[in-house]
Amino acid sequence: MNIKEIIRKVNVLSNGAIVLGSNVVIDSHYNRRVRVVTHTHSDHMIGLRSSIALCRNIVATPLTIEIINELGYRVPKNRKTPLPYGTELKLENSVLKLIKARHIMGSAQVILDDHELGLRITYTGDFKHPGSDTPVVETDILIIESTYGRPEWVRPFKYEIENLMVDFVSRLLREGPVHIRGFHGKIQEVMEILRGSGIDAPFILPDKIFKITKLTVKHGMNIGNFLRLNDPEAKSLIDYGWYIFLDHAGTQPTLRRYKLRKDAVEIILTGWEFKKPIRKLRGGKYVIAFSDHADFEELISYVENAQPKFVITDASRSNAAYVLASEIKRRLGIEAIALPARGKSLVFY
User: What's the CA gap between 131 and 309, in Å, rounded?
Assistant: First the structure.
């Protein structure tokens, strides 16, 4: 099968849809029988209401299905298809299954064994730590995320950042309360890391984060004591000044929004920091370089160990995909292309 034939069967569209054959679309809407949601970050839930209305099956891990519901999407029971890791879903001329991806709780990679083409097609979704926390799938065609797809986007401290974060938060708590801002999933991951490292300060959460956290605990996360912001006990702890408050990164700063203690130190979690694991900002805030995405080294490592015949880098979510595709060809000698081409003629690296 040549490259043009592959693209007719496997494609990445400008709306973020990952199209696999004639039956499956992933992480955005397109006219296919099955819509897969790899996780519940907004750029992977594009067009979900249209998919709920028009696709026959909405497929995701059981936790992701529950979070979708908590976020206000109503999937009819006859279309809701919770698929545990490793369980096969038989489709016409193919078999689909989800396997773990280390990104946020419930995240999945998608494997489609296409019997008509005689090919295994794998979409990584978002991931980090390939080969340890994220299984690497040997595959024929690999579609890979490209968020940090430039050679300069490497975090040399990526395997030490959890311990550095724990030590820093522990030190801050000796002086007063701590406020942490991050995205859904990353917040819960950080809570589990802090709790597992012996930090026992109570977590205080806004209502939506509290509800999502309850779901992650139901599905196995070990987070310990956490309270809803408007609970009387939480208000007492805020007055006392010993707590960790966690909020979504997309909201306005927590002190203004919730009128919390002004002596709290605010931490922002971001993947867009490559030079220092912890950096101080103006106003006494800090950035911690905690990411749920693979950096450039990890992206290359995944491709090298997956041994694909052909790679598609996802350019619908990152322009770095074009650089990543050329680097895969140059470093590994594997044919690669970035899709979609964004109005350009297709460039094969």
Answer: 19
**Domains in the chain, ordered, with CATH?**
3-152+293-339 (3.60.15.10), 161-288 (3.40.50.10890)
C-alpha–C-alpha distance, residues 197 and 183, integer Å: 21
Contact indicator for 110, 25 with CB cutoff of 8 Å: no
C-alpha 73/C-alpha 64 separation (Å) is 12
What is the Cα–Cα distance from 130 to 110, expressed in whole angstroms?
15
Enter the DSSP assignment of 41.
Answer: S
From 293, 287, 288, select the one nearest 320 (Cα to Cα): 293
Give the chain's residues under pLDDT 50.
344-349
**Confidence (pLDDT) at 9:** 84
What Rg do the C-alpha atoms of the chain give, in angstroms?
21
- pTM for the full model? 0.93
Report the SS3 class of residue 66: helix
Tell me which residue of 332, 278, 330, 288 sits closest to 308, measured CA to CA: 332
Reading across the β-sheet that carries 94-100, which strands appear in turn? 88-91, 94-100, 108-114, 119-123, 141-144, 310-314, 335-339
Respond yes or no on whether the N-terminal peptide bond of residue 202 is cis (omega within 30° of 0). Answer: no
For residue 2, the Cα-to-chain-centroid distance in whole angstroms is 32
Percent helix, strand and coil across the chain, each to the nearest 5: 30, 25, 45
- CA distances for 262 relative to 165, 176, 178, 242, 255, angstroms: 22, 10, 11, 13, 7
